[in-house]
Design brief:
Blueprint: H1 3-20, E1 26-28, E2 33-35, E3 38-40, E4 43-46, H2 57-67, E5 71-75, H3 78-81, H4 96-105, E6 109-113, H5 144-161, E7 172-176, H6 188-202, E8 207-212, E9 226-232, H7 237-240, H8 242-247, E10 254-259, H9 275-287, E11 291-295, E12 309-310, E13 315-316, H10 335-344, E14 377-378, E15 381-384, E16 395-398, E17 411-418, E18 430-440, E19 442-447, E20 450-456, E21 464-468, E22 475-482, E23 497-507, E24 513-518, E25 520-526, H11 530-534, E26 539-540, E27 546-554, E28 560-563, E29 569-574, E30 577-583, E31 590-593, E32 601-609, E33 617-618, E34 620-621, H12 636-639, H13 641-647, E35 655-657
Parallel strand pairs: 4-5, 4-11, 5-6, 6-7, 7-8, 8-9, 9-10, 10-11, 24-35
Antiparallel strand pairs: 1-2, 2-3, 12-13, 14-33, 15-26, 15-27, 16-25, 17-22, 17-25, 18-21, 18-23, 19-20, 19-22, 23-24, 27-32, 28-31, 28-34, 29-30, 29-32
């Protein structure tokens, strides 16, 4: 190739690149959005990049395109990008900019919801755990430290996304300010501060909006933002917009979260919603020129420790975030998908009906990811959970402190101390009542290595457990598993471990009622990092609660589901990837294993089971089990809380501590 040809080729490539990134305009017109000055109805598919393995991002985007959507809507999850303060990560699975570029590659616009709070049934609503190290932190408030950290995070996000806005040739057409703040509080200056933060990063031209419910959107509505509403598929669509239409008659109407289904919680029935109400609701919106984002179009999976918890007491969410969405957890099209695709085929890409009943030729539905069935695996190696050789070195603690104060955000924590004499005076062999306040979230209590009982925060917040009679110097271990932090309401200030105190309520030989405030502790931290679980001391299987490990070989790879029906409670890692939590109470009894995380040849699987399996075997299935509820397997001690409380002696001013400190308080 001569010099002239090289120059011509370079000029052609430059022209093609410029054409691919041609700047467009997007704005709010009178009663409609305007794309390049022409009316445009947003048909958005909500998808979350951390809930989809990166090798599958493009497949899921193409599924949304083939459904008939013209936009993708996504949250930016603060706590996956800044897992330690000032350590930011936008690489690999966290590369939100790459996800947006893939959307543009397939002709999709993007709506970004950068928080800082996102809810999303995600750990702490997307806020990073280390904020809770500051004991007086006021989250989602005009707390100077909190707002300083928000500004730093949003600036880092801006470094990734600010060049991808529509005016710069990118796919991002709108950005959300905060998230459903009306269900948290009423504080327009705070919402204004988040708006100003985003404006300082993205400029004045990018269209910005805020979302809330029809019942509370007026609490924090700012006049210079688009107001959008969130509601479910069973709602009366036009009634939802009635008040908003009265207040802002010329503003484009949009449902920024139209809930296609619902999420599952441990110990709760599996959630499903009919396709017809979803399709009818979207049909009503399109007939009236109302934009929408379908939450969720594809839910995916809350891998690792990222599943949050609802605020109904304490109600942790399942690992699967299938959401009964049109695209299921594994990426397959469901009946909902095809019913909605049929409706959307009658509308053009700008969201307007085709004349004469014509249908649009939508892109072909992508082929599903291959599914395989793994042979049943038998686990041959075992490392006892509470064996001294498997516990890390302890640190001393004067008084009880939560996990965050030991610089750990996720996993488990063991509190250990020695007990005073609590011999039975009634001859029934029963000793003191152990009272733990606040305990977050699932406790297993041992004396000299013997399991005494367990408590679960979700059963009406149980706090007390009857101990056997003890002798001075016996060792008390309280193992606590931290589950997902509450992701909704003021309860997002959800510290883990034990946050207040541990007491023994007992009676002296003279008949005096005593309260021991246990204050001298040794603390051990059990993170959920793969490097930690892989290096436990594995031996032949001969125990119950602990770490189980085996390997299996594959001649071909594909998606599959691991059947955990015979296992207790814990986490699973395959080839270093943490698949998420399992719990025998259901309704979810399987874990989704993406084929892109498997390899031909030898694969490794590790299970941390804090209860222990009925048998250490595990089949691989081609379909999930998500509707098998076994609430009878909840902790029995917790269920007997009422009887335990009734038997508790009433504390008196005469108290003692295990450090013999005089005047300890009740």
């Amino acid at each position: 190739m001569n010099k002239r040809h090289i120059i011509t080729t370079l000029l052609l490539l430059t022209a093609m690149t410029m054409a691919a990134s041609t700047a467009h305009t997007f704005s709010a017109g009178q009663g409609t959005f305007l794309l390049d000055g022409k009316p445009f109805v947003i048909k958005a598919a909500e998808v979350h990049y951390p809930r989809i393995p990166r090798p599958y991002w493009e497949h899921r985007i193409k599924m949304c395109k083939a459904l008939g959507m013209n936009t993708l809507c996504l949250y930016v999850f603060w706590n996956i990008h800044e897992q330690q303060e000032d350590l930011f990560d936008f690489s690999g699975q966290r590369d939100v900019a790459a996800f947006c570029r893939l959307a543009q590659k397939h002709g999709m616009w993007v709506i970004v919801r950068p928080g800082p709070y996102v809810c999303a049934e995600w750990e702490m609503g997307g806020l990073p755990w280390w904020l809770l190290k500051k004991k007086d932190i006021r989250l989602r408030k005009r707390d100077p430290y909190y707002l300083e950290r928000v500004q730093k995070f949003e600036q880092k996000v801006g470094e990734q996304l600010s060049n991808l806005t529509i005016e710069k040739g990118g796919p991002i057409i709108m950005m959300q300010v905060e998230n459903e703040y009306g269900s948290y509080g009423e504080d327009k200056p705070y919402v204004s501060a988040i708006r100003d933060c985003l404006r300082s990063i993205y400029g004045e031209n990018l269209t910005m909006f805020q979302c809330d419910w029809s019942s509370n959107f007026e609490k924090n509505a700012l006049p210079d933002l688009i107001w959008t509403l969130n509601f479910g598929s069973s709602a009366d669509v036009l009634k939802q917009f009635r008040r908003l239409k009265e207040l802002r008659p010329d503003m484009p109407m949009m449902c920024s979260e139209f809930w296609s289904g619902w999420f599952d919680g441990w110990g709760q029935p599996h959630q499903q919603r009919p396709w017809k109400s979803m399709v009818d609701g979207i049909g009503t919106m399109l007939e009236n020129g109302i934009s929408f984002s379908l939450y969720m179009t594809h839910g995916g999976t809350s891998f690792g420790q990222w599943a949050g918890a609802n605020n109904k007491g304490y109600a942790p969410d399942c690992t699967s975030y299938d959401y009964d969405a049109p695209i299921d957890e594994q990426g397959r099209a469901t009946e909902k998908y095809y019913k909605l695709r049929e409706l959307l085929s009658h509308y053009d890409d700008r969201g307007f009906p085709l004349q004469g009943g014509r249908k649009r030729n939508l892109p072909a539905v992508p082929a599903p990811i291959p599914v395989i069935s793994l042979p049943e695996m038998t686990f041959s190696e075992f490392a006892p959970l509470m064996a001294e050789e498997n516990l890390p070195e302890s640190v001393a603690s004067e008084g009880i402190q939560p996990m965050e104060q030991f610089d750990q955000g996720y996993g488990s924590i063991v509190y250990s101390t020695t007990l005073p004499e609590t011999s039975s005076t009634s001859g029934d062999g029963k000793g003191a009542l152990l009272r733990i306040t606040d305990m977050c979230d699932y406790a297993r209590v041992y004396i000299d290595g013997r399991l005494i009982g367990q408590l679960y925060r979700g059963n009406g917040y149980e706090t007390m457990l009857r101990l056997p009679a003890t002798h001075e110097g016996q060792r008390l271990d309280i193992f606590i598993e931290a589950m997902g932090r509450i992701n909704y309401s003021q309860l997002i200030h959800d510290r883990k471990g034990i946050t207040e105190r541990v007491e023994l309520l007992t009676t002296s030989p003279q008949g005096h009622q005593l309260t021991y405030d246990l204050r001298q502790w040794q603390v051990r931290l059990l993170p959920i990092d793969y490097g930690f679980v892989q290096t436990r001391k594995y031996k032949t299987v001969n125990g119950k609660e602990g770490y189980y490990r085996t390997t299996f070989r594959l001649s071909k790879t594909g998606d599959t589901y691991l059947d955990l029906s015979s296992w207790g409670k814990g986490l699973v890692w395959v080839n270093g990837h943490c698949l998420g939590r399992f719990w025998q109470i259901g309704p979810q009894q399987t874990l989704y294993l993406p084929g892109c995380w498997l390899k031909k040849g030898e694969n490794e699987i590790i299970v941390m089971d804090i209860l222990g399996p009925t048998q250490p075997t595990m089949p691989g299935l081609t379909r999930p089990i998500v509707d098998s509820l076994r609430r009878n397997l909840l902790p029995r001690d917790a269920v007997k809380q009422a009887a335990t409380k009734a038997a508790a002696p009433k504390p008196t001013p005469q108290t003692e501590g295990n450090d013999a400190a005089p005047g300890a308080k009740l």
